[in-house]
Amino acid sequence: MSSKTKRATPGYRCTECGWATAKWVGRCGECQSWGTVEEVGAAKVRTTPARTVETPAQLIADVDATQAAFVPTGVAELDRVLGGGLVPGAVVLLAGEPGVGKSTLLIDAAARVARGGVSLPSRKVLYVTGEESAAQVKLRADRVGALADSLYLTAETDLATALGQVEGVEPDVLVVDSVQTLSSAEVDGSAGGVTQVREVAGSLIAAAKSRGMTVLLVGHVTKEGTIAGPRLLEHLVDVVCQFEGDKHSSIRLLRAVKNRYGPTDEVGCFELQEAGIRSVDDPSGLFVSRTAQAVSGTCLTVTMEGRRPLLAEVQALLDRSQTSQPRRATAGLDSSRVAMLLAVLQRRAGLSLGTMDAYVSTVGGVRLAEPAADLAVALALASAAQDKPLPQRLVCFGEVGLAGEVRPVPGIGRRIHEVSRLGFTHAVVPASPQGPGPVPKGFKVKEVTTLNEALETFFPA
Length: 461
Hints:
The protein is an alpha/beta fold. The protein has three domains: 10-41; 66-279, P-loop containing nucleotide triphosphate hydrolases (Rossmann fold, 3-Layer(aba) Sandwich); 298-458, 2-Layer Sandwich (Ribosomal Protein S5, domain 2), CATH 3.30.230. The protein has helices at 76-82, 102-115, 134-144, 159-169, 194-211, 232-236, 335-348, 374-386, 412-421, 451-458; strands at residues 11-14, 20-21, 37-40, 91-96, 125-129, 151-155, 173-177, 214-219, 239-245, 251-259, 267-273, 276-279, 298-305, 308-320, 328-331, 356-362, 394-396, 399-400, 406-407, 426-430, 444-448. The strands form five sheets. Strands 6-5-7-8-4-9-10-11-12 form a nine-stranded mixed beta sheet, with helices on both faces. Strands 13-14-16-15 form a four-stranded mixed beta sheet. Helix 7 crosses helix 8.
């Protein structure tokens, strides 16, 4: 058989990461996703003929950038994360666990955009819900005060019907709750599947770009905490935001994972209340306990959430273990990081902690992932081990290494000014060649290079 008449050998490719294999498998061998491997034919080289250009290319200096100017939503913390507000033609994906408050945040933002402001005209907003009925969304809007004359509401699960609503209303902002509930009759698969999510997202993105309409998409997350659907979805949209929060706490944090129009190191803080969700402009102090007297095993630290210093408290409790395997329990901290600090304290500082149960937690449900919290965790454990409280109005931060050294962390000066503003008077910080910078009047800074030096300051032999 000649090469011209030989049939192309079929192959299989993952629709999320592009991993290829010669035979079908249920799980991708690269990204470990289930049900994403599909059959594809052998690659064929095709050429596309040129067509007449309707809109000639422009010099970049002649492009009108005002058409992509930010439009504030009226929700201060949401605007902070987005970089200033909504951009016409942009597509924003908001993901989060069920019940975290995604729908409440978006219905509030939609109503504020529809009402406009002092210097902003009111805009048409279309809210498409596929998870609830229109009456259920209206009840929530009544409860949180999210009503506006130019806010339209429809309950649709068919993509073509939803696009027809866009044609009729011609909104400036479209909210889709959620992208996994819409489906198209033009492609196979159930709603929420890889093929359907790709088709729905592609159609909505095309409508956003052609109309200059901002689209806000609500996305589900998997049990691992990642955004459900193909990874291509995150590549196609302009902004990806994660809405985080503990179900047992009213505090919610909004992070920008991807942002084509602004920074990705900003964090918005919200408080979920009975009457809706409100922005928290100054979250410092929300994650600190209120005790009149100093208690052993507690230490305050400053973590950088994006570019915003955030005050948090670490609490540690040590008790003699009743078993041969001491227990290590953590909440709000990385358990492996705490285990490492326990080993450093025992080996480098001479504290006998091998037979003690260790319980380490943060206050208020905040999660500390930054290594700058190491020094505070270590001092809290040392305070609990010796049953001696640390001085009040003291803040400690710095990264602790396996050799017992205290390493510099970014933003030392910014952290010091934040805690000084809150009324604290002392800080233990890592020594750096540049120093802590200008220190507020009346504030004392102790620079340390090793963990033993910090322990000797508060627990002299």
